[in-house]
Each structure stands twice: as structure tokens, then as C-alpha cells.
Amino acid sequence: MVYHKSVTDLSTLPKEKVIRFLESFDTVVTDCDGVLWILGVPIPGSSDVLNKLRDLGKKIFYVTNNSTKTRDELVEAASSMNYVINKNEVISTSYLTACYLKSIDFQGKVYIVGSEGISQELDEILIKHEGVGPDVVTSFSDALDFTIHSEIKAVVVGMDKDFSYRKMIKAATYLNNPEVLFIGTNTDEQFPVGGTKIMPGTGSLVRAIECCSLRKAVIMGKPSTFVGKALVDEYGIDPKRTLMIGDRCNTDISLGSRCGFQTLLVLSGVTSLSEVLELKKSDSEENKELTPDVYLRTLGDLMPFLTDQ
Ligand SMILES: [Mg+2]
């Protein structure tokens, strides 16, 4: 028998059903960009809903594939947009990268193709690093004019506004040694910016380095289950009573499905309603994993159901 998820707009369900849904989870794992804000601009209504869920006793975790900010910076940014948030509730890919290196007792220096979000998290656990900041070649004749540092034992690729051909050369050179670890923070292809212009995401940079190094990166962020495992192992959450909220099916919803969480897609970011409806029609196992249980136009649409709670 073909199984189709009954994915529906949560806000169109009878109130009793929505209340039952709200009572079915006690942990919320929420994505940030595209759910709570877009490029630093708050999405109206999201903070009211999330703060209300917290008031109702739900545990909240902010899980972001963004590697450009440290947890402290994310707390500061979210607080300024009225989100109630603590550092130990933030799980970013730069933090996960640091946790991963610590968990394997990493010895050596890291070459970063990325930003200060990563370097500062590595500083916190006293791992040396280099690479953050502009580094360009001015001509092909001096492209290979750099020193190879033998203490580099890992290459970490995250979001990098200074991404360059020189950095590709260095990363590929270090990764030419199979002993050197290759970590990518996440695989998001594009940023949710709205409008017609496109901003390439970290996944585009990771793939560029994968291509020129002939290696595959170990991925820290969603949909890698590394983050879900950390939530279960370190924070003791119950997957069955956990709700994953996200704006992107191939990262957020996929992670939720793989970890056994319930899933709620909001249409305020990357994935559109037409894409969800296509997924809903699909018979493939792979697409089933990408299909949310329910969706909302925006997280704020949940507020009318929370006001009497
Ligand atoms: Mg997002």
C-alpha cells in the first residue's frame, strides 16, 4: 500500500485537534533563519509563539546550520528580537564542530575556510586554527606561493564571505593528505533571502572543496543526525515528544524524520507550499522523509491557539 502523509495546514484544523497536537510534545527544536528571522530581520509573531511555548513549560532548543556566529552572538541577536534564550539552548554548527573535535581528542591545528563563528568556538576549547579572513591570489603565477603548515590536521569549511581560489588551493592541498580530517558545517545550498536574488549557502562552498580535493566532508549540521544524537545523548530529550520546526524540508524536516521527531514546516523561508504538495504526492521513501507532518504559513499563525492555554 502506498503511504501518503496527511500533511495539512495546522491552522485550518479544529481547535481541539491543534490543542491535542500542542500537548503531544514537550521539547521544541527550532531552526532559526527562515523560521524566527530572515537575514537578521524578525519574522512577525514568531517570538510570541516561541516564548509562549516556553511559558507552557516546553523545552526549547535553537538549532542552526549558521556557522558565522558563536552561541553568545546568537543569544545576543535573538534576545534583541525579543526571544527568551539561553546559551545552553543554542546548537550551532560552529559549536557542533568544536564538540566533535573535542570528542575525538583532536590534536593539531585547523585550517578554516569560514568565519569567526568557528574560530571563536575553537578558541573556547583551545584548538589552534588559521585561515579566517581575506586571502586571494593576484595571478596564477603566484597561486601556489604559500607555505604548507604540517601541523594542520583538519580542514573545516563553513560560511565564508571571503571564499576564494587561494582558499580552495590551500584546502585541497591539506586534504591531499588522507590523514587530514575534512569537516563541513552544513550542506544548505542557498540562504532564504526572499525576492529574486540568490545567495549561495555553505553547501555550495563545501561542494567546491569536495570537488577540488576529491574528498567527502563529514557534515555537522542538519540533516546529519549528529545534532539529533547530541540532543538525545547530552540533553536527554525524548524523540517521540519532540517537535522539529523548520523552513527547509531537505535539512530541518529530514533531520526531524530521521530522529523520530514530529515535524512542522513553516512557509516563511526556503520551502514553498507547491514543493510540499509535490512531496505529499510522492511515493518514494526518500521524499517521505522530507515531508512534514503539518505546516503553517508562518509560526505566528499558531498564536490564536495558544492564547487560552
Ligand atoms: Mg532555515
Automatic annotation (TrEMBL):
InterPro entries associated with the record = HAD-like_sf (IPR036412), HAD-SF_hydro_IIA (IPR006357), HAD_sf (IPR023214), PGP_euk (IPR006349)
Active site, renumbered? D31, D33
What GO MF annotations does this protein's record show? metal ion binding; phosphatase activity
Entry binding sites for substrate: K222
Identify the keywords attached in UniProt to this record, alphabetized. Answer: Hydrolase, Magnesium, Metal-binding
Q: Which cofactor does it need?
A: Mg(2+)
In Pfam terms, one family for this protein is Hydrolase_like
Q: What's an example GO cellular component term for this entry?
A: cytoplasm
- UniProt keyword Transit peptide present: no
Q: By its UniProt entry, which PANTHER family does this protein fall under?
A: 4-NITROPHENYLPHOSPHATASE-RELATED, FI11325P-RELATED
Give the family per the record: Belongs to the HAD-like hydrolase superfamily.
Q: What is this protein called?
A: Phosphoglycolate phosphatase
